[in-house]
Amino acid sequence: MTFPSFLQYEIFGNALNQYLIAVLILVVGAALRRLLSRLLSAVLFRLTKRYTAGVSEQELHELLIQPLATLLLLGTIYAACGVLRYPLLPSAVPGVEPWPKVALLRVFLLGFIATVTWVVMRLIDFALLVVQRRNELRQTPGSTRLDNQFLPFAKDLLKVFVIILGAMVVLGEVFGVNVTALVGGLGIGGLAVAFAAKESLENLIASFTIFLDQPFGVGDLVTAGDVSGTVEKIGFRSTRLRTAEKSYLTVPNKSMIDKPLDNLSLRTSRRVGFTLIFDQKTTSAQLHSIIADAVAALQAHPLVTQDVQMKFNALTPAGKEVTVQYFVGTTSYDEYLDVKEDLNYRLVEVVEQHGGAFAGTPVSAAAAVAKP
Fold first, then answer.
1. Domains and CATH numbers, the chain
2. What is the 3-state secondary structure (H, E, C) of 128-156?
């Protein structure tokens, strides 16, 4: 192929036609990178379709198109730069690559390794998404709780290993560091690193303890020391809780296992306990009737267990104290409040039916209650 004579004019050691070819490669590569990245992700989905039940092709595209497009753009830039020649300086040593070419190659390698690491991390996201969807389709009893706790933990763990591996490749290929000697040297300074990162290591070990022992999982309502909330995520270093005030609380994993932990979500029932104080004018016959009918009313509720206690507990200057205790067979806090409210109304009705009066009730009000 022949070019016009003016395209043979050289600038910085390259003819204009070489610059033109480089620009064309960049333009074509930039224009086609999105299309090619979608094509590559589509081919990958076709190859893995039999194993990806429950995951759509669009979800894979959303994960891979951006990193693949970046990877293709880097390849385009490398191909465009490969067309050009890099002139040697007068002081250059013969047989040694010119420094602009070396610098560009190292920048390319750095970007290439970083982008490949990005692609691998997105593939990890896709693989764990496939595992999660497959488990949801199987609907194995009790598997959802374990998946919610294990899958985010496994994803973060794999990503950390990929990042460490990518960093080692960068040190070896881009900066020329002897990675083998570096890893060996870490053994010498390992003790100092361990002391410097003592808290982080303790929290990391605590995260494995939480995963293996499973004292709580994602979605559980827990109380550890002065901290209380619903578990939203269990990470390497910390556990994230959503408190009753809807704030997002981060607690070190070590604190979650070092303190007595109450998993409120594992309760079979919720306790209700309080004291009723009747005035001194309420007779013993009225108390007997009130207690008998109140116990019957509590036991008649379908969500109240049979362990109902209502006792004439004490005589005080304030009045006659009757303690009440029962358990609501639900783990839902809203349902617990509804049952408690319903039974409080029922207790008031029983007291009114038998002409009783609570301490502190004005005499006129008590008399009005006593009327048939």
1. 5-86+97-178 (no CATH), 198-264 (2.30.30.60), 270-370 (3.30.70.100)
2. HHHHHHHHHHHCCCCHHHHHHHHHHHHHH
Cross-sheet strand order for the sheet of 309-316: 270-278, 319-328, 309-316
pTM over 0.85: no
Q: What pLDDT is attached to residue 242?
A: 92
CB within 8 Å of 43: residues ≥ 6 apart? none
Contact in structure between 370 and 355 (CB atoms under 8 Å): yes
- 21-26: long-range contacts (C-beta < 8 A, 24 or more apart)? 21/83, 22/80, 22/81, 22/83, 22/84, 23/80, 25/76, 25/79, 25/80, 25/83, 26/76, 26/77, 26/80
* Tokens found for residue 263: 């998993």
Taking the C-alpha atoms of residue 218 and residue 147, their distance in angstroms, rounded to an integer, is: 9
